[in-house]
């Protein structure tokens, strides 16, 4: 069975590293599950579809919750484009729009 790879854009990697350690640990557990099982086998409470090709990893820690927004790329790769601490019940529209813009940039520049 071919496994999946989870990669980060440079911006998303910085955002992930800025999260509290317990949220990062939660994120790494979800990434391990995605890499082992693939995106089609994993659902809530770990991941959830957001809009179009955009999905979110659901992270939590003592300080609250965070989201890592990602999409699937050719070659069994999942690309994380945005990571943020969530302060409202729904994922804010501006976060979704930022992630969608970053997807466009990634697809334009296939070197990520």
Outline:
With 112 residues, the protein is α+β, with helices and mostly antiparallel strands. The chain is built from 3 helices and 5 strands; from the N terminus they run E-H-H-E-E-E-E-H. A 5-stranded mixed β-sheet has the order 1-5-4-3-2.
How does this structure look, described?
- By secondary structure, the chain is of the alpha+beta class.
- The chain has one domain (5-108): RelE-like (YaeB-like fold, 2-Layer Sandwich), CATH 3.30.2310.20.
- Helix content is 37%, strand content 33%.
- It has helices spanning 10-17, 21-37, 93-108, and strands spanning 5-8, 47-51, 54-61, 64-73, 77-86.
- A hairpin with a 2-residue loop joins strand 2 and strand 3.
- The longest helix has 17 residues, at 21-37.
- The chain is globular, with a radius of gyration of 13 Å.
């Amino acid at each position: 069975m071919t496994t999946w790879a989870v990669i980060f854009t440079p911006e998303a990697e910085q955002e992930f590293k800025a999260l509290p350690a317990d949220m990062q640990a939660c994120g790494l557990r979800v990434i391990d599950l995605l890499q082992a099982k693939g995106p089609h086998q994993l659902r809530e409470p770990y991941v959830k579809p957001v809009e179009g090709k955009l999905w979110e990893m659901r992270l939590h820690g003592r300080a609250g919750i965070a989201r890592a927004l990602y999409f699937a790329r050719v070659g069994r790769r999942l690309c994380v484009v945005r990571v943020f601490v969530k302060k409202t019940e729904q994922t804010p529209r501006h976060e979704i729009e930022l992630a969608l813009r970053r997807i466009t940039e990634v697809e334009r520049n296939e070197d990520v």
